[in-house]
Amino acid sequence: MMPHQSTAITVKNLTMAYGDYIVMRSLNFTAQRSEIKVIIGGSGCGKSTLLKHLVGLEKAASGEIFYGDQRFLPDSAEAAQIRRQFGVSFQSGALWSSMTLQENVALPLEQYTQLSASEIRDLVEFKLSLVGLAGFGHRYPSELSGGMQKRAGLARAIALDPKILFFDEPSAGLDPLSSRRLDDLILELRDALGATVIVVTHELASIFSIADTALFLDAESKTALCDGNPNDLVEDAQTEPKVRRFLTRGDSDNH
């Protein structure tokens, strides 16, 4: 059966492994177009590993990943075309330290488009303004705060107007105010681009403020225990106790 046309990502029976070591087995989930899905769970459950499988940096031991109705095989001829729809922002921001912000954001535009230098310059300034960094294009990453570096990473991730955005712990290392601003920015970018957003995070405030659905990975059983709206998961008496403990953690102000 082919994935439904309103479904952006379909994962079927995905097993992730390093050699004989199984990280997660038989994962099945979907992400709809313009949905924000957060991947949550305790340390070592495979959240970042799943993200790497979704973007093709790791190969599945078994199972299938579809983008729309196209099966995603990292080594296939079609993979590059599918990846062109991705915007990825890793935990570190992964900016080139020897390049200015303008040069960092311009890089994918120079590599993957036929735009002129002046068109790229205008687009870069627009993308930087979207993330609140207008006028900072001449700065180097080392001249920015942690929160500004994260936002610069987002500007580069959205350079090619991606259909799907992937974020790995976007709020890691940020103070609560900067983290909240970044959450607001992710919501704004989703609305502006109409993009599907996949976020790996352990931050409770982020989970409850941005997630349409949350996929909980469990290191013990090596599978997903639930997939649903985090507020509903907390309220539902049928929710696994392990999931409810993770989502409350004694902090009732987050939902």
UniProtKB/TrEMBL annotation:
Keywords: ATP-binding, Nucleotide-binding, Transport
SUPFAM superfamilies, alphabetized: P-loop containing nucleoside triphosphate hydrolases
Domain of life: Bacteria
Entries under InterPro entries matching the protein: AAA+_ATPase, ABC_transporter-like_ATP-bd, ABC_transporter-like_CS, P-loop_NTPase
A single MF term (Gene Ontology): ATP binding
Name of one Pfam family that matches: ABC_tran
Keyword ATP-binding: yes
PANTHER family (alphabetical): PROTEIN TRIGALACTOSYLDIACYLGLYCEROL 3, CHLOROPLASTIC (PTHR43023:SF3)
Protein name: ATP-binding cassette domain-containing protein
Species annotation: Thalassobacterium maritimum
Biological classification of the source: Bacteria, Pseudomonadati, Verrucomicrobiota, Opitutia, Puniceicoccales
